[in-house]
């Protein structure tokens, strides 16, 4: 019997990227979800993280698990998810937790940050060899329909100040880094800031799009309130407010360095070659 890799979140963008990478590497992959939509080849257990019995069933026979939590901003609900994971994970050889965002060094009062901080601390302390991956924002956000529509008009809008340097991460690179984290003993017990090949300002990001697309693209910072308003039809009011709260915190000058990175160090640590920014643009936005 081959090892079973459980990917919690396999039906979403981030977890789906992890599942695709593991499937590509020839692994047997199991997912947990109420709607069993995701990469072809995933074996599904029906349920969600609030259902302790479903979580136990999902972890049965599993040797390695990748965890990406759902978009939930209630700290009590997130804590319940994590408790169910910890209770079911005793037999794991490795657990990799993707926080879905960087976690600031200081306490923020922002539920989206603080619930992930608490989850990371609990999973690192659960007795299973665990690795916490803390990504910045994702390049794949810029391939969404709203971004493509804006790019067609020569604009790259995003709710981050233009001067903030961001090591935008590709979903495919998240999958590669997660797969590597399963098998690198030196990473056990570590919490690592991950990111992409280059950390760029908003105008530098727009310049990269300009050079690949062959037409002028300019970066436009979006006010977090306006961003929240645009998210409501897509995510609902509660989730939109939760997402926007992170960008309000990130707008402060003292938050400018949160999304930077050290790609050379990251590549050496994980043995992974990250995707160059312009290569990603050529594949996904051209």
UniProtKB/TrEMBL annotation:
Q: Which residues form the NmrA-like domain?
A: 6-244
- Organism this protein belongs to: Actinomadura rugatobispora
**Keywords, comma-separated and alphabetical:** NADP
Domain of life assignment: Bacteria
Matching PANTHER family: NITROGEN METABOLITE REPRESSION PROTEIN NMRA FAMILY MEMBER (PTHR42748), NMRA LIKE REDOX SENSOR 1-RELATED (PTHR42748:SF7)
Q: Pfam families under this entry?
A: NmrA
To which protein family does this belong?
Belongs to the NmrA-type oxidoreductase family.
Record keyword NADP present: yes
Q: Would the keyword NADP turn up in this protein's UniProt record? A: yes
What is the protein name for this chain?
Answer: NmrA family NAD(P)-binding protein
């Amino acid at each position: 019997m081959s090892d079973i890799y459980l990917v919690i979140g396999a039906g979403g963008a981030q977890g789906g990227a992890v599942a695709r990478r593991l499937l590509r590497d020839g692994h047997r992959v199991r997912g947990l979800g109420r709607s069993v939509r995701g990469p072809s080849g995933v074996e599904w257990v029906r349920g969600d993280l609030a259902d302790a019995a479903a979580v136990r069933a999902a972890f049965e026979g599993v040797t390695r698990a990748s965890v990406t939590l759902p978009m939930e901003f209630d700290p009590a609900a997130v804590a319940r998810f994590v408790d169910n994971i910890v209770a079911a994970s005793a037999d794991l050889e490795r657990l990799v937790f993707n926080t879905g965002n960087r976690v600031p060094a200081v306490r923020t009062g922002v539920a989206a940050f603080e619930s992930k901080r608490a989850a990371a601390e609990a999973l690192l302390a659960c007795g299973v060899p665990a690795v916490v991956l803390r990504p910045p924002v994702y390049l794949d956000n810029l391939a969404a329909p709203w971004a493509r529509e804006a790019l067609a008009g020569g604009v790259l809008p995003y709710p981050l100040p233009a001067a903030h340097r961001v090591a935008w991460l590709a979903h495919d690179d998240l999958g590669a880094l997660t797969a590597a984290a399963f098998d690198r003993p030196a990473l056990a017990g570590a919490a690592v800031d991950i990111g992409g090949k280059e950390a760029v300002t908003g105008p530098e990001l727009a310049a990269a799009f300009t050079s690949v697309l062959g037409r002028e693209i300019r970066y436009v910072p979006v006010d977090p309130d306006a961003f929240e308003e645009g998210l409501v039809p897509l995510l609902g009011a509660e989730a939109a407010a939760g997402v926007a709260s992170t960008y309000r915190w990130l707008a402060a000058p003292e938050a400018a360095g949160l999304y930077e990175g050290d790609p050379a160090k990251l590549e050496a640590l994980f043995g992974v070659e990250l995707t160059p920014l312009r290569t990603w643009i050529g594949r996904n936005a051209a």
